[in-house]
Amino acid sequence: MKRRNFIFLPLIALLASCKPAVDPETKADAGKLRILATFLPVHAHAAAIAGDRAIVESLISGDTGAHDFSPRPADMQRIAEADVLVFNGAGMEPWLDDLIQQAARKDLRKVDLSTGIDLLENTDALDEEHDHDHDDHDDHDHDHDHDHGEHNPHLWLDPVLAIQQAETLRDALIAADPEGASTYQENAANYIATLRELDTAFQAILGPLPDKKLVTFHDAFPYLAKRYGLENIGYISRFPERDPAPAELAALIDRIRAADVKILFAESGYEPALLQRVAAETGTKVSTLDTLEVGEPGSDAYLDGMRRNLETLRAAFAR
Fold first, then answer.
1. Between 282 and 72, whose confidence is greater?
2. What value, to the nearest 5°, has the Cα angle with vertex 85 and ends 307 and 29?
3. For 34, 98, 114, 276, which has the most beta carbons within 10 A of its beta carbon?
4. Where is the domain boundary, 145, 168, 198?
5. How much of the chain is in helix, strand and coil states, percent to nearest 5?
6. Does 275 reside within a domain?
7. What per-residue confidence (pLDDT) applies to 25?
8. Whole-angstrom Cα distance, residue 115 to residue 121?
């Protein structure tokens, strides 16, 4: 997946020339809160907590990742019509500020689901080892650091932090729609209970396994690794948009061999060829985890995806 530049002014011109879209189901939806969530896990939280009380849409869906999103006129229209905008935050949606400034209503409620969470810093062990070896990559890396910020944004992959996200969202929806408070509270309580069950399952299944060495395609799983005691050996690339320098890849291969890693994890939605090359060179096997950044949205999408990830990890580490 390649990084794109976002150009908003032509879209605004198109948007200004469009009449507001009229949904054929406007009678059923009249007066409902309109919630726009940025991508799959954020949408899943919002859909589960809002239920039928609100209209919940996903700004990004299908096979487009948050890193690759480029807004179209229809997306600008949805921003303009939204009452509540829910996003992951922590640098996951670097294009969002410009989009809000160009298209959003002044009374738009913005809900940052990273609020109150103890975020992990973006680190790159490979760069730390080779600080002086690839100055030629400095401009490129700084560009990505600007895009993603100083913190790792993949906090939703820790079910306990997902609970905090759900609580933040519940409170925001109650503030936006006080008359629906009981609905949001009940739905959130049920959803959070299921998230707690998910956390319990991760602890029960991963906890007893003795050899939990994690090597992934990009740096997406530090929160999950920290929560459940996985040994985070490394990753192919800090960002999925950038191939590693030869020195970075060589250092990772050395660590994989030194740690006697048995399995590497590709990621859904990203080309696995480079990781497969590393696997061939190190004699390791390849499995696939899902960062949940792409896929069909739905109220169960997060829970289903994380359950699949748990089974993937169980099968990999139980070998």
1. 282
2. 90
3. 114
4. 198
5. 50, 15, 35
6. yes
7. 53
8. 15
Taking Cα atoms as reference points, which of 209, 210, 208, 261 lies closest to residue 234?
261
Say whether both 167 and 267 belong to one domain: no
* This prediction's pTM: 0.85
Whose tokens are 């169980």? That residue is 314
Q: What total number of domains does the chain contain?
A: 2
CATH number for the domain that contains residue 35:
3.40.50.1980
Read off the pLDDT of residues 122-170 as tens digits, 9 standing for 90 and up: 865 334 433 434 344 344 333 333 345 689 999 999 999 999 999 999 9
Q: Same structural domain for residues 247 and 161?
A: no
Q: What is the mean pLDDT of residues 294-303?
A: 94
Domain that holds residue 273: 205-317
- Whether 16 has a pLDDT exceeding 60, the answer reads no
Same domain, 27 and 104: yes
Cβ burial 239-275 (10 Å sphere, 16+ → b, else e): bbbbebbeebbebbeebbeeeebbbbbbbbbbebebb
